[in-house]
Amino acid sequence: MGKLGKFQSMEFESWAKTSKLNHINSAFLGKPQELDNLMVQLLAFRYRRTLNTFLSQYPTKTFESNDEYTWKVIGSMVKNLPIVEARDLSGTAITSGNAGANGEPFYVVFDEDLFADGAIIVGELNEIYPLRILGDGYREGTNVRYKVVVTGGVTTGIPAAQLAPGKRFSKEYAPVEREFSRKVDDIMFSSPIAMRNEFSTIRMQHKVSGALINKKIAFGIPVEVPTANNSYTVKNVDMWMHYEQWVLEEQWDDAKNKLLAYGRSNRNKYGEYLDIGKSGEVIRMGAGLFQQMEVNNTSFYNDFSLKAIENALYELSAANLNMKERTFVLNTGERGAAQFHKAVLDTVSGWQPIQVNADNLGMVKRTTSPLHENALAAGFQFTEFLAPNGVKLKINVDPMYDDPIRNKIMHPLGGPAYSYRYDIFDIGSMNQPNIFKVAVKGQEGDMTSYEWGLRNPFTGKIGNDFMSHDEDSATVHKMTTTGICVLDPTRTMSIIPSILQG
Questions:
Q1: How far apart are CA 227 and CA 241, in angstroms?
Q2: What whole-number distance in Å separates Cα of residue 430 and Cα of residue 73?
Q3: Domain residue spans in the chain?
Q4: pTM metric for this prediction
């Protein structure tokens, strides 16, 4: 096995015969993207799948500059419109009795001009009280007024309760006479919603003495490293700089994850930035994943149920996604994954006709124990759920949800309350992901630079023709400009414990 440069105590099959002692940074100085990808892989082994490692499997979209980036989302052109008011022909609001008895016209008012002359529109009791529009809508400020009659052979009119503000109406079709008919109806459009976000730039630096180069420590520091079977093992690191560099990369990756997940835009409603940096220039911060998601589909729960998850998935997929496209990722913490498992177990335990040979599935295995010569081990965990109508749900445990330092509110069932949060992502496809990282062209990876005097313990170099300072020390600087884009927040959903409701 070869050695992985500054991580030379960690052995990897894939690095055999390619790595050089203490020179990994030097080798990658001109290829920051490759070094960044390497760290993503290493940290994925250490922490499993974080937001950064998870999104790294999808293409990153690059922009020519670090200016604000914008996109547009076109909403559904077929939708319900809540009624603003119903009036008789004199302009009096209809609040009681029946409207439109014996074919008497009346007005209905909406806040959008979505319907056209001749169209049939229906409310909640759609087949019982259909309305036919007589003429195109008339603008009343921001509202639109339509003259309508009750159709479908109904002579008693429509009850005022079915025309109450907030009752929703949708379009059906536009009937015409069989001979000498004239034009009616028109197609509906939905204007695109302009979305925007911007990049965030973060930095970190760390200084060490040049005397730490090749400095060994008397005791080994345990570090988890990947193995050939896609697992991990613990090895002892006996060089201090290996451990110090590992801690730096660990905390740098943690900062990037928090930026992508929890970043908050610092621009006020007037477009002003209120944070000023040391240079006197403004600090610009973009919105992270959760801030972009929170504008849509957020609910809170006291008692978790799989039914609530199913209903959320149907809401996202019904009439919107093809049966083959209904695969969702459910991000949660370890407590949430265990809660999900128990909910699935409660569901499948009622499937009496289905018999499962647990031993054949490996649920029951032999083990050794001083308690009995025929000792057995048993256990399993549900990590996916196949709901009706082609909906497939995959669990992804993100360690950020379990962080007891950042997530300070504890749950009555134990652990951080955030660990019981569920975020449903419609990730999309490789060709067009719905959630993806963004980068500036030419700056896709991290920028790593060194200031050093005589010795650089980060890279192993000794002797510097172009010293940055006379002190025998080295400082590593890391900076990145990155961000995250949620193309369509309506394709995401958050189900959050009520204890976290602000």
A1: 22
A2: 19
A3: 1-76+193-502, 81-189
A4: 0.64
